[in-house]
Each structure stands twice: as structure tokens, then as C-alpha cells.
Amino acid sequence: MEQVQRRQAHRAAPTFSELFTPKLVTVLREGYGLPQLRADALAGLTVAIVALPLSMAIAIASGVTPERGLFTAIVGGFIVSALGGSRFQIGGPAGAFIVLVASTADRQGVDGLLLATMMAGVFLLAIGYLRLGTYIKYIPYPVTVGFTAGIAVIIFSGQIVELLGLKLPGKEPGPFVPKLMALWQAGGTLNPSAAGIALLSIVTVVALKKWRPHWPGMLVAVALASLVVALLALPADTIGSRYGGIPRSLPLPALPPMSLDKAIAVLPDAIAFALLGAIESLLSAVVADGMTGRRHRSNCELVAQGFANIGSALFGGICATGTIARTATNVRAGAHGPVSGMLHSAFLLVFMLVAAPLASYIPLAALAGVLAVVCWNMVEKQAIAALLRSSPADAVVLGATFLIVVFRDLTEGIVVGFALGAVLFIDRMAKAVAIAESEQPLVADDVADATNGDRRAYDASEASDPDTVVYHISGAFFFGAASTVAAVLDRIADQRKNFILDCSRVPLFDSTAANVIESTAHKAKKAGVRFIIAGASPQTRRMLITHGVKRPLVTFAASVKDAKAQLRMG
Fold first, then answer.
1. Average pLDDT of the residues in 405-432
2. Where are the transmembrane segments (predicted)?
3. Alpha carbons 472 and 300: distance in angstroms, whole number
4. Local confidence band at 510 (pLDDT 50, 70, 90 cut-offs)
5. pTM (predicted TM-score)
């Protein structure tokens, strides 16, 4: 029977080609015609209009020139859609990467940033091809919520200089508290024009979202702010005055300078990019699945993210990942499949070729206002409120992750949040395990004929033998519960001749549990007690036998009733 089940499971396992076939291929196989192309073209244009100002704003906030954000959206976004495992994923620069990218660019320079991005792409390829993407889902929900909220706070704090037009005497500090102190000291340099432009942009985006939700609010806000600054000649920094504009074409692909020392220096950054990219892209794909009822291929998506980051770095772009807001916009715009994401990249390229000179007039305060709205939207207010109400454990994980991300480090926040969530989960599981001795009344309680009710309705044979004790374990028997169960099993009465341990309600049994049972079996043998394990699943039995829990220490029975029959037979 077990061999049949294994053969069936083997046949049901997806093949390599099934796991890593891009959704683009799947969509084209289903049939793709002019109506589908029209829907994808409209959705792609809508997303491109949203991505145009956002890509430049994210790049500037990341400490690099605005065109690098466009390169990322064009090259990385195209590859994500062409090779990805999600029908609707839109790739490009993401707000979640701003802090990491800015820190890497500051310490390692742009060449180091490009090398770290390329290495992150290689790591993502390895994660995908090794089929490790499935494990990303084990990151606790409070960790992702706290992490995202922490990033939003950090990004917003980094935009205050542009929002208010402040002039710092030196370089803006990276850590949160020193940054706030420097901003406070620079409060006297506030530029009313820049603050007014930022406020105008925020109000425009919020108002259009409320009254004209189908309008490209961010693009309208940036265009309106640029027009106001140009017509009134306001003293506000623009892309042209700060960066000299953006190029009108993509650069030729080129490898960043490489050396072993440089690769070792940027290795921690590359690992952080890969982990955050995996988390962010798969979260975005899950959001798209929830909106459409479709199902993405997680490992295929990670492979596409890997190629996208390598391609982005070759063209001078920054980290690319799946973007939740743009992906949701793509779905709401009526996209049919991955072609919309590919067209979104093509439209961005056309915009850059045609309208590059106009980008010089965009005020930096307007882009900062756009990012301020993005930060507000990143904070999942309802999820935070629900987690704070749900349980103290979830609130602790959420709060710890948020505080560590804001005041210490992003990667450290994820690691500590995950570890804390895992420990609290283990504690919950351990408390859910129950072990109890059977109730053995002199006369069994009356029960309905042919009852199929509670297992506490034992038969008369279980209640009639004073030399036999039966213990029942319920719940996952793993290392977290081992001490609790061991304490009970150690109290086996030496006066009893027979000991039956019912494991029929144990769904999980690990090596620590097997060690506890082995210790108990040796104690029982030494005391002259016959030990029978009843109801163990085939997996549990194999685990026990592997750890030496076998004859002559114990015998196995299919059920408590069969164990009793063994005792009667001697």
C-alpha cells in the first residue's frame, strides 16, 4: 500500500519543465489574439504612466541618478514579465529597496552597487532552481507587516530634506535618530517654495485617488508641479538643476568592474538584495493571485527575478523586483497576461526617448511628495490594528520587527522577527500537546450502540485490567513538547506490568520525540514493564525504529484494542 502511495505521489510531482515554464508561454498556448493584445496594451500603458515618475523618484531616494530607475523598470521589468511565473507581475525598482540600495551605493559606490545587484541575481537563480522559493511562505505575517511599516518610516524620513527644501551643512546621516537630529538643526533653512510644491503634489495625488481613481494621479501631480515651478520661476531644485536631465536612450550593456576583494566586500549586500527581492516579489505575486484567482509558480518567478537583476545591472540599473502597487494597477487595468508587463517596459522606453528633455523640469519636491504618498500606502494600517488585537505574541513580533528595522537594520529586523515568531510558534505548539492516562472506571459508562463519538468511550477490555496503563498523546510531538511528555512518561508506575502508549493522534513526530520514547522504553524494560506503542503511523514507526525503539524494547500494534489483544495472547 505504501509503495502504491509513493508511486502515485511520484507521478503527481510536477516536472522541471512544468515548474519553470514562464507564464508567457502558458498564455500563448491558450490562444492569444487581437482582443487580448488590446487589453494588455491598455493595461501596459496605464502601468507605464504610473511607473514613469515612481521609477525616477525611487532611484533618487536610493542615492543614484533618476535614469537608473528607468533602466531598471525597462530592462528588469521586461525580463520579469517575459520569464516570470506570474501572469500579472510588474517588475521594476521598489520602495522596499531604497534603504538597502542607498546604503550600498554610499559605502561601495555605484560600481559596487551594480556588482551586488548582479550577484543578487545569481543568488536568486540558485534559490529558484533549487526550488527554495516555497520556503519563503514560512516568514510570519507579523514580520512582513512590521518590516514594511519600518521601511516606510525610513523612506519618509529620507524624503524630509526634499519635502521641505532643507539645506544640511554636511552629508545626511543614515541612522534614523542622527538623521532626525540633523533635520531638526536644519529647520531654519526651510524653503517655502519646495514645501508648497510637495504639498501640492500630495494633495493632487490624494484628491485624484478619491475623486478620479482611474486617472494617473502621480503623473498628473508631477506634471502640475513642474508646470507651476516653470511658470512662476520658483526657487526649487529640479532634475535638470541637480542631475542635468536624463539620457534619451538605453546605455550599451556592460559588466561592472569585478574583483574578488570587491565581490567579498559587497557579498552581504547581495545576500540582502536577494532575500528581500525574493520576499517582495513573491508577496506581490500572491497579491495578484488573490485579485485574479490565478496561481503563480514561485520558483519560476524567482528565476525570472534573478535574470532581471542581472540584466538590470548590465544596463546600469538598480535592484529589480515585483512591485505590489504596479502589479495591482496592472490587474485593475484589465491585463490578460505577461504581455502587458512587457509592453509597460516598451512604453517606458518610448517615453524616455521622446520626453527625456521634459524630465529636466520635474521638481525634486514633487517626486518626494509622490514617495510620501507611497510610504503612507505601504503601512498596512488595518493589518497592524488586527495584529495588535489578535494576540500579545503577534503584537510582540510586529513591534520588535518594526523597531529593529527603524533603529537598527533591515536584515537584522527580518532575522530577529522570524526567530521570535518561530520561538513563539514553538511555544504555542508545545502547549497544544496533551498526554493523559486513560480513565479506567470499574464499570464502563453507557454509550450509544455503534458509537463513533469521543475516544474517551473506551471498551470494557480497556477498563478491566488493573495491571495495564494506557497513555494517549494528542498533538504534534516534537522538540518543543518533549520535556512535557517526558515528565509524564517518567512517572510510569512500577506496579503496572503493561504500558500502552497510544500515538494514533500524533500528526508529527521528530527525532527528539523518538529519543524520549527510547529513554522511556529502556526504563520500562529495566522495571520489567511490557511496552506497546499503538496507532503509530508508518512514518512515526520508521522514525522510532531508526532511533532504536524496536524489539525487544517495544512492540507495535495498530490500535489500543490490538495492543490489548497482544497482552491477552501473552
1. 82
2. 41-62, 69-90, 110-132, 139-161, 181-208, 215-234, 270-290, 302-325, 345-374, 395-426, 469-489
3. 44
4. confident
5. 0.75
- CA separation for the pair 259, 139 (Å, rounded): 34
Distance CA 131, CA 138 (A): 14
Pick the CATH number of 434-442+455-569 from 3.90.1010.10, 3.40.50.11550, 3.90.1200.10, 3.30.750.24: 3.30.750.24
| Integer Cα distance of 329 and 88 in angstroms | 10
Strand pairing partners for 498? 468, 530
Contacts of 28-33 with CB under 8 Å at 24 or more apart are 32/336, 32/337, 32/339
**Residues listed for the chain:** 570
Pair type for strands 498-505 and 530-534: parallel
Q: Provide the pLDDT for residue 438.
A: 65
User: Which helix (H) or strand (E) segment is 150 a member of?
Assistant: helix 141-164
Mean pLDDT score of the chain, rounded to an integer? 85
Instruction: Report CA dihedral (198, 405, 329, 79) to the nearest 10 degrees.
Output: 110
CB 320 within 8 A of CB 72: yes
Strand partners, 321: 92
Q: Are 214 and 227 contacting, i.e. CB atoms less than 8 angstroms apart? A: no
Of 319, 332, 313, nearest to 58 by C-alpha is: 319
Taking the mean position of all CA atoms in its chain, how far away is CA 294?
Answer: 18
- 3-state class (DSSP) for residue 437: strand
* pLDDT beyond 80 at 435: no
pLDDT band at 283 (very low <50, low <70, confident <90, very high): confident
Cell 529636466 found at: 360
CB-CB contact of 321 with 86 (8 Å):
no
Strand 468-474 versus strand 434-437 pairing type = antiparallel
Domain ranges of the chain: 36-238+285-424, 434-442+455-569
Please check the confidence at residue 152 and state whether its pLDDT lies above 90: no
The three cell numbers locating residue 75: 530592462
